[in-house]
Amino acid sequence: MPPDPQSSQIIPHVEGFFHAASNTISYVVKDPQSNACAIIDSVLDLDYAAGKIAYTHADMIIDYVEKHQLSVEWLIETHVHADHLSAAPYIQQEHGGKIGIAKQIVEVQEVFGKMFNAGTEFQRDGSQFDVLFQDGSRYLIGEMPAYVMHTPGHTPACMTHVIGDAIFVGDTLFMPDGGTARADFPGGDAAQLYQSIQKILALDDAMRIFVCHDYGPDGRSIAWQTTVAEERAKNIHIGKGASEADFVAMRLKRDATLAMPTLIMPSIQVNMRAGHMPAAEPDGDTYLKVPISGLKSKKSS
User: Fold this and answer.
1) Average pLDDT, stretch 170-184?
2) What was the pLDDT predicted at 8?
3) d(Cα 274, Cα 92) in Å, to the nearest integer?
4) Are 249 and 76 in contact (CB under 8 A)?
5) Which of 156, 184, 215, 222 suits a disulfide with 107, CB 3.0-4.6 Å?
6) What is the dihedral of CA 283, 84, 76, 65, to 10 degrees?
7) pLDDT tens sequence across 207-260
8) If we measure between CA atoms, which residue out of 228, 224, 266, 191 comes closest to residue 3?
């Protein structure tokens, strides 16, 4: 069932928060009729070399919520991020809200639970999250309806959230001059990604698209808002009616040249747990693992 056409007439207030270290944009999305809001793709600061976490970026969001007296109802993860740690549990501790992700998180947990030898204590059923969304799920932010589309290809658990006239695409699409997500992570699929993007581009031309990352191609200023029409016409990877075969060929060639994100090892271990750290070991400290065999599935945990 597609989103209600009437919902695109609702215009939520969207505030973006850019995290320079990971080129991530987090969002606070407010119901225009109340103080209810959702926070999308929050970021925890990590000094990987020093093994230290901080809350600077998350505190900026919390300060904004408190300044505007907002009520946090949702903490949305568009997917299991590979380039930053989620701050959702930290914000939830301060302001509540339900942490939600796609039900396909169980596929991600199965693959990476084995890869990081997480053991039987790591539940691979999505129970670390409060809500598991399905394709077509609907929920409310105050009185504002939100609709969820499963848009896999970058990862199996990628979801696009349509909230009023605003579309939050995660990593599936970038700004038109930035192109599209990579599809070479475990569980990624370029053909799936193409089909997922077509679902987004089939929405109303004027609907606003908010991207999760921007890298300022060719030195332009960081940006995170575009429209369906602009993506359809100008996206350098998928625009102007690019065929699936051409897109897949481009994606395979391009992905082969890309380095892994700097924080992929710690990010996945934390984010597959809904932003929680692994359990402390007998000495009281918490550790994140780096499998020296790299990012490939293991047969057993």
Assistant:
1) 98
2) 73
3) 11
4) no
5) 156
6) 90
7) 999 999 999 999 999 999 999 999 999 999 999 999 999 999 999 999 999 999
8) 228
